Amino acid sequence: MIRINLLPYREREKKENIQRQIIILASTLVLFLLILVSIHLYVSVSVAGLEKSITRANAKLSVLNKKAGQIEGFKRDKKELEQKLAVINALEGYRLFPVRMLDELNHLVPSKEIWLEKLTQTGRELRIEGMARDNGTVAIFMKSLEKASFVDTLDLIVSKEKEVAGVKLQQFTMTCVLKKGS
């Protein structure tokens, strides 16, 4: 005899199978959403931390930029002061030069032979104008002047005879280039 089972066991298996699949799908979806939420939270926390780090770095950068500006100001001031000191030192070095030059020139002028009438200094050029007894005296004066410590080069510009109070004298004009650093 044939037995017929009229209970819907296959439908029940199908329903159970569908329920299992729905549960697996729902749990997978919930797990996926949990993973997405945790990734989102992790990225949000990381972004917030990085933004705070950027804010701190920008604050530190602004402080350092102010200090760098101050340092640049100090460097400019230092350079200015060094230039002023260099000018002062140069002036101090040249301060006694005219006195030494005139003293040496006084020793080089033959007394009662040459009379200096005018000395003019323009930059490194010294112009000497005067009167002498004769051309030989002018030549001797020029030779001794060429050996002077402050003279680099010497040129006779004019030497002409001039009568003063009935006496014939030589009027002369010469220029010398002064040595650097003198």
Task: Give the structure's gist in a few sentences.
By secondary structure, the chain is an alpha+beta fold. 61% of the residues lie in helices and 24% in strands. It has a four-stranded antiparallel beta sheet, covered by helices on one side.
Polypeptide structure, described:
Helices cover 61% and strands 24% of the residues. It has 182 residues and is α+β, with helices and mostly antiparallel strands. The protein has 2 domains: 8-95; 97-178, Threonyl-tRNA Synthetase, Chain A, domain 2 (2-Layer Sandwich), CATH 3.30.980. It is rod-shaped. The model has no long low-confidence stretch (mean pLDDT 87).
Domains (count): 2
Beta strand %: 15-25%
Q: Which structural class matches the secondary elements?
A: alpha+beta
Name the strands of the widest sheet in spatial order: 1-2-4-3
Q: What separation lies between the terminal Cα atoms?
A: 144 Å
Question: Which shape, going by the Cα principal axes?
Answer: rod-shaped
The secondary-structure element order is HHEEHEE
The number of helices is 3
- What gyration radius follows from the Cα positions, in whole Å? 53 Å
Uncertain segments: none
Largest sheet: 4 strands, antiparallel
Return the average pLDDT rounded to an integer: 87
Helical content stands at: 55-70%
Quaternary state reads single chain
Number of DSSP strand runs: 4
